[in-house]
Amino acid sequence: MISSIPAPLAGRVAIITEASRGIGAAVAIDFARRGCSHIAITYLGNIDAAKKVLSSINEISSDIKTALIRADVTSEMFGQDVVKAALSSLAVNHIDIVVSNAALSDTKTLQSMETHTKEAFDQFMTANVWSPFQLSLAAIPHMGRGGRIITISSVASRRPNVNPMVILGATKAASDSITRALAAAYPRRTGITINSVAVGPTNADALRMGMAKLPKEWTEALYVRVTAERRIAEVDDVTGVVSWLAGPDSKWVNGNFVPCSGGSMLELQG
């Protein structure tokens, strides 16, 4: 019997935004393991971390064509610029998979709803709603049948949030709504599926830095009550769901809000 390594994403061209760390980095590396031939990742501030991700990809296979794109999710042209740069840097004329992971969630920018400034509100809306929306619209003309668009969302989009998470949760809810609208508008003539993945607190740099600034009672409650297993997620808990949605077996999943939160939304699901 001849055995082979499954490669459900063999030959696919992927863009993963903010993949220099955390969930984005883990997704990019998992895509490489599953056979992607071209992978473009974006980063903003930490080029060394981004280069390390590309090095990990090339350790899996030196044949994988990679591209590193510096892009600011708060820029109005983020989506168009990323797609243009990916096509050029990877030397391809199409895109198969887009993972919108970049978002603004900086605890220094988060404010209470009573004192939230319009400037900060607009910045969050641009980064977390406008940019993934425009990224999808920019990518779709370059995607064929079987294309996949996956937006990394949050359980905060369905929960009544407390300060300082109110506006962040609102932006994620708005992005989920746009994901459903895109999923209703495009698949019939394009064969593209468009979904969002709702993650809960995940053991990555952004959470660790944010947790250090929160009151002790918040962090204790988070660890005790966050999931059915009473633990926060590891990045590998999320990557398998994203990679499955990116592959051929998910072809009949479209317009969905896919919980990947370890049961932390059980009270909302009934």
UniProtKB/TrEMBL annotation:
This is 3-oxoacyl-[acyl-carrier protein] reductase. PANTHER family: NADPH-DEPENDENT ALDEHYDE REDUCTASE-LIKE PROTEIN, CHLOROPLASTIC-RELATED. It comes from the Eukaryota. The keyword Oxidoreductase applies. InterPro entries: NAD(P)-bd_dom_sf, SDR_fam. SUPFAM superfamilies: NAD(P)-binding Rossmann-fold domains. Belongs to the short-chain dehydrogenases/reductases (SDR) family. Keywords: Oxidoreductase. It comes from Cladophialophora psammophila CBS 110553. GO terms for molecular function: oxidoreductase activity, acting on CH-OH group of donors.
